[in-house]
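Students often ask what a holo structure prediction actually looks like on paper. The answer is less mysterious than it sounds. You provide the chain, you provide the ligand, and the output is a string of discrete structure tokens encoding the 3D arrangement of the protein together with magnesium ion.
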Amino acid sequence: MSQPLLDVRGLVVEYGHGRDLHRAVDDVSFQVPRGGSLAVVGESGSGKSTIAKALVRLVRPTAGSIVFDGVDLAQLTDRRLRPLRHRVQMVFQDPYGSLDPHLSAQEIVAEPLAARGERSRRVRERRAAELLDQVGLPTSALHRRPAEFSGGQRQRIGIARALASEPDLLVCDEATSALDVSVQAQVLDILAGLRRDQGLTFLFISHNLGVVRAVSDEVLVLRTGRVVERGPTTEVLRRPREEYTRQLRRSVLEPALISGRKPRDLVRRIAAARTAESVAAA
Ligand code: ADP
Ligand code: MG
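The corresponding structure tokens follow.
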């Protein structure tokens, strides 16, 4: 067995202090093999984003280890962490907030290349164009600014920018949650393709148990900062052990279920699924 790319053990993250102390992540452990994809699902406030932020040091862990490629990131000073930072990249729910409105798509994607020391402007521009092409944006997109793109296109720019840093691990925090169902499927396709073709490793965070199946083989279910269930995604979807997980599943309208079906047919199928579930739960 080779060492997992990411090995998180006993992770605890607390916010505030004294009477305001709040434990957002409580003793969470998981591993992601190189080239693997782990999904973290849970209701709003369950601690998903806090885990993501701890991985990229947007918050400091209170306890536990975050061993990435053999190095415990939790123990590193900011200075020691710096050369490793590019290897773990985040894709956020709303890239709009993090895309500089004054820059063109090409400039946005070229920025991390400059930060990593690529001094030739022409090389940066060419590489940025390649990356935008890779996420399915046309050449005509190169010189447009964020406001001129749709939500799905902006998310593609956010992914291209993350790729510019040549990461090993991509942490996607609700990366498709704000998108329409059909656009969501396109972005999921891009992410699945990156894993398949480039061997990228994924931590895929979502409140939607339905979308994780497209991109993750394993899932970890989080509730109030604790892991309540984990296993192969298909297993957890088919036979959730916890009522909490069943609830998550129930609130999901799967893209595959929706596409190509008439609304009335869809309503009937969902009703049937719910009945089957309540029978199974009884
Ligand atoms: P999720 O991403 O699953 O919705 P979060 O990780 O954002 O959950 O939040 C987990 C818990 O931590 C919630 O109770 C939230 O209110 C709290 N929390 C998140 N960020 C902060 C913060 N900066 N300060 C204090 N509490 C926070
Ligand atoms: Mg969140």
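The longest strand covers residues 22-32.
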